[in-house]
Design brief:
This protein is mainly beta. Helix content is about 0%, strand content about 70%. It has strands at about 1-10, 15-30, 35-45, 45-55, 55-75, 80-100, 105-115, 115-125, 130-135, 140, 155-165, 165, 170-185, 200-215, 220-235, 245-260.
Length: about 260
Amino acid sequence: SQTTAIFDFGIGPQQRVQTTTDTDNDVSVARGLSTVLGVWWQANPRLTLGLNIKPHYDLHLRSQEQTTNRVVDEDLTTTPPTLTSTSTASTSETKESVLTYPTSATLGTAIRFGDLTTLSLDATWTKWDQFSSSSGGTTRSPLASAIQPSDYRDGLTARVGFERIIPFERFMVVPRVGALYEETPGVTTSPSVLDPANVQARMDRYYGFTLGTSVFREALIVDAAIQLRIASGIAGEGASPNETTTVHALAARISLAYLF
């Protein structure tokens, strides 16, 4: 940030003081441990069921913040202005906090139609009132200091996918298509740009679509996929704090594997 002050003592500008502040914040994970419990059941040759439970866990974070202030004082009574003085001061502060991720559970199934076609579905429940940040004896939502974690309700994610194996003489192609619905914690708009912290809890709703394919040739596997996620009425994503925006998130992935 930069601030400039010009002093006028009645006979025109005589002094200009320019203050520049640079802040560097480095956040690292000091320690953390999470566990995942899962079970898989082949009910019959055409039906597979799975259950995955991930209990809530803590990440202990360490934040190193360094602030540098530079003040430049200029005499405006000369042409060009004369540098009167300059000073630089730096401060450093280390803070520790605990970020708690919520408990979630996923139930999924895969249904095979013949040997070449598979339909998969899964649903995830997340206890978002456990998503919190604790520092200095105070617990709050990581999204806004005015929001308590208990203000959020549980969230639901649902996904559906379809794939088809297309065999050729020397390789196979597996095209895939999918869709998703996801609820994540968000914030409302503030009443005014002058009061950006005055927000409340809300659940943002995302809709997504995925296209992908895999190519198998002997020991070589190539995977590629692209996903588009869309959400409307989102606050705090680049818009003014009293305005909402529509978010479009596009992700692409490609991987190469060789089986020995």
